[in-house]
């Protein structure tokens, strides 16, 4: 049966126990299709997660496959290392560019369903770390859908719910125990009248379906900025549509400002560790030179050696104190 609503769920750390609790309360007669992005390690198999969900719900659960037709009362889980999109009632499972360093990405799913189903979308953010899904909820709101967030105090990892609430005009903030009843109540109603879909979201959704875009398309979406994509090294464009500041490159890597900041911290840390290694190698060379030399020349090498030792100690202290350490979320099940 064709669904009247789309329920799109995004979760990360602590996600599987939360999903099990939520779907266990949803009836087989739910007039909605449920699409789920749970952050997974790239080499994970989603089959055991689908089996686990099937044991606790009357919904029919599937690992999403390219070309599947959406049906009410069915749940579709995004496979590992693949984005889950929709187009004209059909699932698209693609290996497109990462968004917020994730594939599958919550933002990619939320944007796709928002453009395709507009006011008939209910976007749900459950427990998780970092920022994926925040921009996606904003996409859903801009297309007339509604945003639902697990109460942060109720979430095992409150970062994703809290970040969404901080940046998006969320419609409902509820504990997990009340969420299924809310979803059943909302899906029992006639969807609100459709509203025009923003052109920038339609353009981004079309690019995601094709997997890669062009610089000309990126120029129409935003302003090119003097920064590079941390994933591919390409130019970045700043996108200021909606309430969430975002950046993307023309190949499709996309980041919220928070996610881009975390990526730049990680890249900086890696660069500094490389610099430390090179300085250690230089120190060893100077030490050998000072030992083999004589007179003034040997004294000069010893002075240079002491100077580089001081730089090494300062840099090592800076790194070990965690001043540049990037916070990363585990991509394992529930991470």
Taking pLDDT < 50 over at least 5 consecutive residues as the criterion, the unreliable ranges are: 324-335
Spatial ordering of strands, largest sheet: 3-4-2-1-7-8-9
What's the tally of helices?
10
- The overall strand count is 13
The tally of domains stands at 3
Helical content band: 40-55%
Shape summary: elongated
Report the radius of gyration as a whole number of Å. 24 Å
Mean pLDDT: 89
How far apart are the first and last residues' alpha carbons, in Å? 33 Å
Protein name: protein-glutamate methylesterase
GO cellular component, one term: cytoplasm
Active site: 12, 39, 132
GO molecular function: phosphorelay response regulator activity; protein-glutamate methylesterase activity
Summarize the structure.
This protein has 335 residues and is an alpha/beta fold.
